[in-house]
Prior knowledge:
This protein is 76% helix and 0% strand.
Amino acid sequence: xxxxxIIGGIALIISGIFLVVVVLLQEGKENGLSGAIQGGSxxxxxxxxxxxxxxxxxxxxxxxxxxxxxxxxxxxxxxxxFLAK
Length: 85
């Protein structure tokens, strides 16, 4: 194994762990039975200022780590193909 494979594998594992942690930190979107009875309100402070809330930051972090994980996965497969030759 080359140093690049080791570094790439470690980066892939770390990005995967961060992705799992960020997803687990997010709250569920469902309101349960009370939301079904009362109806969902679309006009609220949180919906109007959604970019500054904790959930919005976690959503952005999830997107970022998902893209990083996806790119690292592709790079690891491409490197495995080229290094095998």
